[in-house]
Design goal:
0% strand, mainly alpha, 440 residues
C-alpha cells in the first residue's frame, strides 16, 4: 500500500500542474472558435479548414516536446545533468529551423490549402486569411513545444503552467480587441494569437537557456546534436502523421457533408482536443516518470508506475465523459448561434463522451511508450490504426450516413489505438534500461 501511495504522489506531482498547463493550451483555439463563431457560420467553417492545416503542421512536430521530455528525463534519471540541459537547447535550435521552413510553406500554400479543405468559396476565403496570418506564429509554436518538453523532463511543470495561463489571457484580450474593437474579423483573431504565441515562446526559451548556462552546458547550435534529435524524432513524426491524417480525413468528410456539418465538426473537434489535452496530463506523467525510472535502471518501478497510471487514465476519462454528457445539450450555445449547427453537435458530443474512459487509457499508454523511447513501435501501430479507421470514415462520406456517424467512426479509431498499445505494454521489449536506448 505504501508503494501505491508513493506512486500516486509522484503521478500527481507531475499530472496536476501538467493538467492545468495542458488545458490552457487548447483554450487559444476554443477562444478563437467562440469569438469567430459569433461572426457567422462561414467564418467558423473557415476556421475549421485553417485549424486542421495549422494543427497538422504543429501537431506533426509534437516530437519536439515528446522527444525532449523522454531524452531529458532519461538523462536526468541517469545523473547526466549537463548533457540533459545541452540536449534541451539543441531541441530549441531544431524547433527554430523547422518553424521557419514550415511557416513559410503554410503562408505560400494558404490559398490552395484553404480552397481544398473548404466547403464553399466564401469559407475558403476566410480559411486563407486565417492561415496567412497564423503562419507567422508557427516558429513560436514549435519553440513552445521544445521548451515545454525539456522542462517536463526536468520535472518543472510550474513554469509552463504560468506561461500558458498568461499567454491565454493575453490571447483572449487581443482577440476581442482585434476582432470587435478594431473590426479585424478572422485576420484579427489570427493576429491576436500570433502575438500571444510569440510572447509565450520568448519567455520559455529564456528559461531553458538560462538553466543551460547555469549547468555550464553549451548553448550554441551543435549540428550533430540537432541532427540526432531530428533522426530520433522521425518515428514519432510518423506516429503523429497517422494521427493527424485521421483528423484531416474527418474534416474532409465533414466538408463533403456540407457547411453545417463542417462548422459542427470544428466545435466538436475543438472540444475533443480540449479533453485530450486534459487527459494527457497523466500521459505527461507517463513520459516523464517512465524516462526517469528507465534511465535509473529500475524496471520494477517502471512496471508499477505504468499499472497505476492506467488506473488514473481510466478514472479521469470516466469523469471527463460524465461531465461532457451532462454539458452536451447546452455547451454548443457557447460556440455558435446557428440552431442547425447546435442540433448536429449534441449527438456527436454524446458519442465522444462515451469513449472518454478508453481515451484516457490510450493517452496514458501512448505516454508511457513515448517516455520509453519506443517510437518505432508507435509508428507502425499508428499506420495500422489509420488503415482501420480510414474505411470507416470514408463510408460515412460515401453513403451520406450523417455527421453523428463520423464520430462513431472516431470511436472505432480510439478502440484500434487501445488494442495496439495494450498489446505492447504487456510485454517487456519497450523496457530498455539506462541513459539511452542503444541496448535495443
Amino acid at each position: 500500500m505504501r508503494l501505491r501511495r508513493d506512486d500516486d504522489r509522484q503521478i500527481l506531482r507531475v499530472a496536476v500542474p501538467a493538467f492545468f498547463a495542458l488545458v490552457t493550451e487548447p483554450l487559444m483555439l476554443l477562444a478563437d472558435t467562440a469569438i469567430i463563431g459569433h461572426l457567422g457560420t462561414g467564418e467558423l467553417g473557415g476556421l475549421a479548414a485553417a485549424s486542421v492545416v495549422l494543427g497538422t503542421v504543429v501537431g506533426l512536430c509534437i516530437f519536439l516536446a515528446y522527444g525532449s521530455t523522454a531524452t531529458v528525463s532519461r538523462h536526468h534519471g541517469a545523473g547526466d545533468e549537463r548533457l540533459a540541459h545541452g540536449l534541451a537547447v539543441s531541441s530549441l535550435w531544431l524547433a527554430v529551423g523547422l518553424g521557419v521552413v514550415l511557416g513559410g510553406g503554410v503562408a505560400t500554400l494558404s490559398g490552395p490549402l484553404g480552397t481544398g479543405l473548404a466547403s464553399s468559396d466564401r469559407v475558403a476565403g476566410f480559411a486563407t486569411d486565417y492561415m496567412l496570418v497564423s503562419a507567422l506564429a508557427i516558429p513560436a509554436m514549435l519553440l513552445i513545444l521544445a521548451a515545454t518538453g525539456a522542462m517536463r523532463g526536468s520535472l518543472d511543470l510550474r513554469t509552463p503552467l504560468i506561461v500558458t495561463i498568461v499567454a491565454n489571457v493575453l490571447n483572449v484580450v487581443l482577440n476581442v480587441l482585434f476582432v470587435y474593437g478594431l473590426d479585424g474579423g478572422v485576420r484579427g483573431a489570427a493576429a491576436g494569437t500570433v502575438v500571444a504565441q510569440w510572447f509565450a515562446a520568448g519567455w520559455l526559451v529564456a528559461v531553458v537557456v538560462r538553466r543551460a548556462r547555469h549547468a555550464h552546458a553549451p548553448t550554441n547550435p551543435r549540428a550533430a546534436e540537432v541532427l540526432a534529435a531530428a533522426r530520433e524524432g522521425i518515428p514519432l513524426l510518423v506516429r503523429t502523421l497517422t494521427l493527424r491524417a485521421s483528423l484531416v480525413l474527418g474534416t474532409v468528410v465533414a466538408a463533403r457533408l456540407g457547411d453545417v456539418p463542417l462548422a459542427a465538426h470544428q466545435v466538436a473537434g475543438s472540444i475533443v482536443v480540449f479533453l485530450a489535452f486534459g487527459l494527457d496530463a497523466v500521459a505527461i506523467a507517463g513520459q516523464t516518470l517512465t524516462g526517469r525510472s528507465l534511465g535509473a535502471g529500475d524496471a520494477r518501478r517502471t512496471r508499477a508506475l505504468t499499472g497505476r497510471m492506467i488506473t488514473w487514465g481510466a478514472g479521469t476519462g470516466l469523469m471527463a465523459g460524465l461531465l461532457l454528457a451532462g454539458a452536451a445539450p447546452w455547451v454548443s450555445h457557447l460556440f455558435t448561434s446557428d440552431p442547425a449547427v447546435r442540433d448536429a453537435l449534441v449527438p456527436a458530443l454524446l458519442v465522444v463522451a462515451v469513449i472518454q474512459p478508453l481515451s484516457g487509457v490510450v493517452f496514458v499508454l501512448d505516454g508511457v511508450l513515448i517516455g520509453a523511447g519506443d517510437g518505432a513501435y508507435l509508428a507502425w501501430a499508428g499506420l495500422a490504426v489509420l488503415a482501420a479507421y480510414a474505411p470507416l470514415a470514408l463510408v460515412v462520406g460515401w453513403t451520406d450516413a450523417g455527421f453523428t456517424w463520423l464520430w462513431v467512426a472516431y470511436a472505432g479509431f480510439i478502440a484500434a489505438r487501445l488494442v495496439t498499445l495494450w498489446h505492447r505494454q504487456r510485454g517487456t521489449a519497450w523496457m530498455v534500461l539506462g541513459s539511452t536506448r542503444s541496448a535495443d
